[in-house]
Specification:
six-stranded mixed β-sheet, alpha/beta, Rossmann fold, 32% helix, single chain, 2 domains, elongated
Amino acid sequence: MEVLPMHNTPLSNRLHIGIFGKMNVGKSTLINALTSQDIAIVSEVPGTTTDPVYKAMELHEIGPVVLIDTGGIDDGGNLGTMRVEKAYQVLNKTDISLLVIDKETGFGDYEERFLAEAKKRNIPSIVVINKIDASRRNGTLAKELADKNISFVEVSALNKTGIAELRDRIVESAPEDFERKVILTDLLAPSDLVLIVAPLDIEAPKGRLKIAQVQAIRDTLDNNCATIVVKEDGLQQMLENLKQKPKLVITESQVFDRVQKLVPAEIPLTSFSVLYARYKADLQTLVEG
């Protein structure tokens, strides 16, 4: 079943991945390869990306992220110096940095300076050797980085070679204290059952689930719980057939009154609107005023 993109995930709850490197090393092409979409402008003209560009996306096996495309860290002139400063300022919002280098031009002072700055800020960095498809030169680059104890991944952003390995490395490098905010698993224990009641006129396009439903199902699976999704006209029969009493019933606001009449009083009932208010804000403070 197709799932709607997680564009509603708050930016503050997304892993921020900064893409850095000299001009024309393929940063924008790498973003397109990671996302499997043409979301970043690609050009052979150096300096195409000027100010940082923030893209909220959903990456396979990683989840909701913000990809930050930056200008070249070697940009020159007065205006170029300002662009470099803006690129370094992105580190203030970065959870993981990807330092892209061209296999042919190699690793030098600009890259050394950047990695030193990221290390000073305790930001995990992954060096990405790009354009492995286009050049046979600088065959000692991998050895040079290994001798410096610098972790790296070799890719061709253009041909998408090595992108799966890079995604795995991003997952491994995510800060230990980074944790995606959950929508309901802190309300559940393993083996609990959650019953989701959908309106008869499901709002999502045919063949898709709404984002709130997707997040709820994902959270229950992550917590080793079970989820059953039923339309409102099948709720009564489902409740009668279940051998395990649901730990929680979730429905949409527009059918809440009708669902409430069918769900036994001892079973907690809530709506996706309430869960999202709790997910995106301090619900307790909102209730107390």
